Amino acid sequence: MIPLVLVGAGGFGREAASVVAAINDDRSTYDLLGFVDDSPDLAGHEVGGIPVLGGLAILDKLATQVVVCTGHPGNYTSRRSLVERIGFAPERYATLIHPAAVIPHSTQVGPGTVILATAVATTTVTIGCHVTIMPAVVLTHDDVVGDYAIFGAGAKLAGGVEIGVGVYIGSGALVREARSVGDWSLVGMGAVVTRDIPPGEVWAGVPARRLRSAAMPADPLKSYGDPS
Ligand SMILES: CC(C)(COP(=O)(O)OP(=O)(O)OC[C@H]1O[C@@H](n2cnc3c(N)ncnc32)[C@H](O)[C@@H]1OP(=O)(O)O)[C@@H](O)C(=O)NCCC(=O)NCCS
Predict the structure, then answer these.
(1) How confident is the model at residue 220 (pLDDT cuts 50, 70, 90)?
(2) 201 CA distance to ligand 1 centroid (A)?
(3) Would residue 216 count as lying in a domain?
(4) Which domain range does residue 57 map to?
(5) Ligand 1, atom 31: nearest CA belongs to which residue?
(6) Which residues line ligand 1 (CB under 6 A)?
(7) Structure pTM?
């Protein structure tokens, strides 16, 4: 059994824990020791029956694998900040794929990525590191997904779509073939993306139009593994 700790005891942390449980039901793989979370009121308590071991500092004392499980539409840059604070090499990150997701061998999936039940990659998809893919997401041939991207439930990409680093694709959004969504942009729930979206913008609607600028991290071009 591989010892594992999940960083972030919120909703996505509990969802990742349920992926771990499903993987273990299929084949005993991970020993989930608990959550790590900086919220002072959580330390020493349980969340969903799983202990919160303490804040981020405790990770230095643990020789476990790790997955960072944060990121909601209001603060979807948080995962990269946490990964940078933790500073672990890629080998320390687990890749969690629910047994009921359909991810063929032709698809690459990076470390730290979590894929929930019923997500599908059809063929030849490249999925980066620390990506979150919620249920019923469909990625199709030749799609490329950058590090730290997040897909809400039911989002679907046509073929040859390029999703930049840190992009948030809202629930149920659709992206037309061969389009791109620039780094750290957010696509609203239910949007139909027919045009390329530049970096750092929020688009929504049918067809999707620009709503406003997105909250970019200070160094938006830096990707996972780049030296600080
Ligand atoms: C696009 C989004 C980020 C906008 O949020 P916001 O900046 O707080 O904007 P507001 O809610 O103030 O809305 C601004 C305007 O855009 C419209 N709007 C917001 N979201 C929209 C959407 N998804 N599609 C169409 N119009 C939308 C609002 O109706 C409002 O229009 P108005 O000015 O005519 O009243 C947000 O609505 C969204 O879709 N987030 C993704 C949620 C999601 O997918 N969660 C998944 C969890 S797994």
Answers:
(1) confident
(2) 13
(3) yes
(4) 2-69
(5) 211
(6) 73, 134, 152-153, 170-171, 186, 188-191, 202, 204-205, 211
(7) 0.96
